[in-house]
Amino acid sequence: MIAAIMQPYLLPYIGYFQLIAAADVFVVYDDVQYMRGGWINRNRILLNGAPHWLTLPVAHSGEVRTQIRDTRYQLSDAALKKLSGQLDAAYRKAPRAAAVKPLLDAILATPEPNVALFNEAAIRTVCDALGIGTRIVRSSAIGRDTALTGQDAVLDICRTLGADHYLNAAGGVDLYQAQAFAEQGVRLSFIASQAPPYRQFAAPFVANLSIADVLMFCEPDQLAQQVAAHSLVAP
């Protein structure tokens, strides 16, 4: 069984969904520290031909080490209206706007201020739209040893789930030791994600924007090709 683990990002890029699709079980890593300035509460969309930040404000507790699952969005009417307006301004003339806008509206209407749960719900909704049927679980709900960190935590999650193959994003190549995984009977692989270009109005192609961008411009057959545009490589 192949397991993959990632923090819950807000409307992440296509590579995130390629990782989910390539796994048998995907773990939403919600019981680790929330990091400001990352991808948890923001992503990029295409506005006027250039990348533009799309952000949901987070209510900071003042604690230095707050876990993602203990973080809350400020889901005020003003914040949601701003996001909806940004998406509309960016994509109202996109070829699939009529089909995709209801999906994005439904995500923004999720009555869940918890950051991890809100993002997980959005990820599940997008997976359904992309035809990805991978099992999704939360790290906080599987009974893992929360005292472990880094590579040890990943191996413990694999043991807890009964996974014999761990798949990580390519950016983690320097974080893990294949020998340590082999000693635990777990194969280690990394996903080599591609971002096939697609037409974004008349502007030069900008890769790896939010999945909202992919959904707005790609027809169903193109979406399937986007999800499939990856390979697994050994460390």
Protein model, in words:
There is one protein chain. It contains eight helices and ten strands. The chain has helices at about 15-20, 75-90, 95-110, 115-130, 150-160, 180-185, 210-215, 220-230, and strands at about 1-5, 25-30, 40-45, 50-55, 60, 70-75, 135-140, 165-170, 185-195, 230-235. The strands form three sheets. A six-stranded mixed β-sheet has the order 7-2-1-8-9-10. A two-stranded antiparallel ribbon has the order 3-4. Strand 8, helix 6 (about 180-185) and strand 9 form a beta-alpha-beta unit. Helix 2 runs antiparallel to helix 3 (about 95-110) and helix 3 (about 95-110) runs antiparallel to helix 7. The longest helix is centred in the middle third of the chain and has 16 residues, at about 115-130.
Main sheet: strand order: 7-2-1-8-9-10
Dominant shape: globular
Intertermini distance: 18 Å
Q: Which stretches of 5+ consecutive residues score pLDDT under 50?
A: none
* Helix-strand category: alpha/beta
Query: SSE order, as H and E?
Result: EHEEEEEHHHEHEHEHHE
Oligomer: single chain
